[in-house]
Amino acid sequence: MKIFAINPGSTSTKIALIQDNTVLFTKNVSHDASKLAEFDGISAQLPYRKETILQILKENQISLEDADAFVGRGGGLIAMEGGIYHIDKLMLDHAARGANGIQHPAQLGPQLAHEFAQRYSKPAFVVNPPDVDELQDLARMTGIKGVYRTIHLHALNLKETAIRHAASLGKTYQECNFVVCHIGGGVSVSAHKYGKMIDGYDIVGGEGPMAPTRCGSISVSNLLRYAKDKDLKEIQSLCTKNGGFVSHLNISDAIELTGRAKKGDKEAEMIWNTMIYQIEKAIGSMAVVLHGKVDGILLGGGMVHSDDLVKQITEACQWMAPVCPYPGEFEMEAMASGAIRALTGEETVKTYTGKPVWSGFDF
Asked: pTM of the full predicted structure?
């Protein structure tokens, strides 16, 4: 089966034509930043991005006439269970306006997939969008009445890594317990119990380990002291743009950071090792959530190409469960695999309700 996958980013859109497990064509389609700035909001970029993609396909003589389905990265949606979803009118409306209150290029994923599906009269899906929420009840409560935890993680990559590793064990995802990490520009650490991601961190809100551009968890009192003479937007940017490596050394590249450390930069070395230390702590926390019944600790994402990172985490965590690296990202393959599972009936396709998967306790 041929699947066309679409993953919009801030100034580019990744596209891939995938047949079964083979990538036939892939391209990171660049968009002119000054042109994007002309549009009033993310969804207004839809016609421009679509035409740019069509032009790239034409230049590379790629036909989508025989594509079996189209799949887009989900974005702007209300919290939902993980899985594969039809792209319907309600989902398109929510994606277009960013119903979850977060403006992100991923909102264009469902819209672009729908546009291409309409053009070629084929089905369109989203697979494990960023707003997946499968938290167990104990993971939702906080020490402030009326404030409840939510999570924002790399759900697509996390779940695909778990699905693939379960298959390597001769099992299904629903038969296993894993601690799954995505270690890249952002760092997600999550607990997966029998096919559900029952706990994790709100990495958009500043939870979890430090990352290249993210501050990670810090004490409220420390933050309040730091924020005393700061603008709110400046503080919020520490959660996703200006925290982590950027705050300390004004860089976001792990290769540059580790290069500095090897040349004797003690601060760079400390920042690198601190991030790894925090990831190890988070892994231990999620292993406890699973009551120690862990079939594997899975590491995905770009920074897993670092032998040092894998070595440190393995040494710290292998007593809990085998540590298994899956370097890099396979978001495009993950979306295509989900679409194939939908088309073959291996996984039931869900309907987006637009209602939060959780709306409060009954007390």
From this structure: 0.92
